Fold Odorant receptor.
Amino acid sequence: MSDKGVLRSIEFKNDHNYSLQLNRWYLKPIGAWPLTGATNVAVRVIVLLQNFICWSIVCFIMIPCFLYMVLEAEDIQSKLNAFGPLLHRIMGSINYLMLLNRRSDIRDCIQQMEADWRLVGRNDDREMMLQQARLGRLIALIAGIIMQGGTLLYSIAKAMKTVTIVVDNETLTMYPMTCPSYRKIIDTRFSPTNEFVLVVQFMSTFIVGSSIVGVCSLAAVFATHACGQLSVLYKRLDELDKEDEKGNYLAKQKMVDIVERHLRILSFVTRMENIFHNASFVEVTGSTITMCLLGYYSIMNWANFDGAKIAAYIIVYVSQGFNLFIFCYIGEILTEQCKNVGQAAYMTNWYNLNQSTARGLVLVILRSSKLIKITAGKLFQLSIATFGDVLRTSVAYLNILRTMTT
């Protein structure tokens, strides 16, 4: 291989790794990063052990919390206080399960991304793809900071002030739990059980947070990569009539490349939809309920004005809204960009093309006329309008909840 070929190989690998670096950091600690066929047995065993430990930690917190909410909590206020953190862990667990079950599909998308980077032959194409890769990386970074930071801050704010209780005429000081536990299974009033469960709760918060961030960041990176490929496709369509002036054969080859590239992009987007439609449904429904509960918690704590708790509620609210916005933005931009391919083909100076070459544009226009949708559970389309609907619905539920509990 020539020196130029070696440098190009290193360059495309660096670009590919750059676009997925943060996703790898989020998912490897919880054993959710897809393994390649060349991975040795020792690594596979370690990943299985990671999965087992993560599930054990999350279930150790979720099951006693659910039993507390059903069997021990006596008033609606206590049940609602436990339901919010429990719902967050349920959402994270579903996302974690999706990441594990869809690992092969995610690996296929990553391999297609790698192939797309390898096929880049022009610097201007590379710059367009890198611009979108930087956007995807930025979204992944913000999602990680806001979601992990918000949930950890919420847990810290909850445990920051110790409470004093009396048990059998004995005064005890304990850290309040974000997820209360059913006492007949785990009695967190006594030390060192209290401190141990508190540490495990922080670990479970990190695991479910990493799962949610991993799903959102992967969706963002995949979507921006598709947008980068579509930008290259627009440029190819714009240059098509210029190529026809240089020679009929060259224009035909460019037309073949355009059709094949278009089909590759649509295949990638379809695979994305199959991977993330369940996770996006969980995000939409879970965010609606969670934002409603966070608003309720803020109102209930406003009288005592616990600044740390209210600040934590607001940060978690923003993080939930941001994650939901990511999915809705992805759905909006991909639908619009895929539709614009047909318009770009129609606006091409097709009358300057050879007749046989111009017929290829009909294929592109016909395929683009079939609307590409990113959906939540294949029930409804994700768009900016969906984001507004969820915000309005969460406020409506908040008003109902306040009416029922006051």
In short: Residues 1-7 have pLDDT under 50 and may be disordered. The CA atoms of residues 157 and 343 lie 52 Å apart. The beta strands are 163-167, 170-174, 375-376, 380-381. Residues 3-405 form one domain.
